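Customer escalation, tier 2.

The customer says the design service returned an amino acid string that "doesn't look like it belongs to this structure." They asked us to rerun it and document both sides in this ticket. The original structure tokens are below, unchanged.
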């Protein structure tokens, strides 16, 4: 059996013809397997969805009760058979509930890793390497210039700035699913125990993370009504990046704009966005994490999805591992 007979790229996304299912389809399909809850991977409107319970819960929170015709939850390490194809979910370390999906038939195993990272994250289960014939990897930060420092180091920079400028309000941009909760959790781990203020767009997901036993400490709404006399001087306020161009952001006293993203490694990007304190915190692998993971798994072949495919394909080829880009479209990652 050739790997392309088991899994192949189509305009709908990765398709498994013998199993008659798609992985993270970008268009509505009859049967979808979903790696994680980010909007570009988890879309509403599929007939049947198989995912971890957390991913199903997150989709329900974002799209409403009727986001799919029917759903089935699968636990990490559990295996189910779909039309004779064995399917297993394994932790990807990206956001709460995120999974790699292993697809297996006739002794051929392909692992579609979805989005993943290797850095420690207190808000989700850590990535588990799975031996396979073909490893499908993302390539969001697949250039040697992308090296993410330890996230705890970046949080220390934030807290140092809070101590240094006690009259200013630190506005931290962080994606609503995963990044925001990871940033809050890391701030707590660093010993900061004052209330943290969150934008309304983060409330449901932060509440869900807390219901799953993830300690985010005391969170208060950062909604300022007309005439609200609360003083946000010295406070930490977390909001989705999109909120920072709103009037919402301009109501805070002497705001100091921070942004938690892997893209903050590029000074020019930080400058363009008006970010005063860039925090290089990513839920994706940097270059070393990608190449170390491929070396560790030592797959027979590597397929590279969305991102900077060329550099990673070339690295694999030089390392003696056959590799090719998949050119999947429709993935503009939400949570970088
Ligand atoms: Zn993602």
């Amino acid at each position: 059996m050739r790997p392309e007979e088991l899994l192949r790229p189509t305009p709908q996304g990765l398709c498994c013809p013998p199993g008659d299912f798609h992985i993270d389809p970008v268009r509505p399909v009859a049967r979808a397997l979903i790696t994680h809850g980010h909007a570009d991977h988890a879309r509403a409107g599929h007939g049947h969805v198989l995912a971890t319970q957390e991913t199903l819960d997150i989709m329900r929170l974002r799209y409403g009760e009727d986001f799919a015709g029917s759903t089935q939850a699968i636990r990490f390490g559990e295996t189910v058979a779909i039309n004779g194809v064995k399917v297993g979910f394994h932790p990807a370390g990206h956001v709460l509930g995120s999974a790699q999906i292993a697809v297996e038939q006739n002794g051929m195993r392909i692992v579609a890793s979805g989005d993943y990272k290797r850095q420690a994250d207190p808000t989700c289960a850590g990535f588990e390497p799975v031996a396979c014939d073909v490893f499908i990897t993302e390539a969001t930060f697949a250039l040697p210039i992308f090296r993410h420092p330890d996230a705890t180091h970046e949080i220390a920079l934030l807290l140092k700035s809070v101590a240094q400028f006690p009259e200013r309000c630190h506005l931290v941009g962080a994606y609503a699913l995963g990044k925001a909760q990871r940033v809050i959790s890391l701030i707590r781990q660093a010993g900061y125990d004052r209330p943290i203020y969150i934008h309304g767009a983060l409330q449901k997901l932060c509440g869900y993370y807390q219901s799953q036993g993830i300690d985010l400490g005391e969170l208060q709404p950062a909604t300022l009504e007309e005439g609200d006399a609360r003083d946000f001087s010295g406070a930490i306020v977390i909001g989705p990046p999109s909120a920072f161009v709103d009037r919402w952001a301009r109501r805070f006293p002497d705001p100091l704009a921070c942004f938690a993203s892997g893209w903050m490694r590029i000074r020019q990007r930080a400058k363009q966005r008006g970010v005063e304190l860039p925090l290089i915190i990513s839920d994706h692998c940097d270059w070393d994490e990608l190449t170390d993971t491929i070396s560790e798994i030592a797959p027979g072949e590597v397929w590279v999805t969305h991102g900077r495919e060329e550099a990673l394909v070339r690295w694999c080829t030089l390392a003696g591992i056959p590799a090719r880009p998949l050119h999947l479209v429709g993935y503009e990652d939400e949570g970088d």
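Tier 2 assessment: The sequence is consistent with the input. The CA atoms of residues 37 and 315 lie 30 Å apart. Residues 36, 38, 41, 94, 115, 333, 335 surround zinc ion (CB under 6 Å). Sent an explanation to the customer and offered a walkthrough call.
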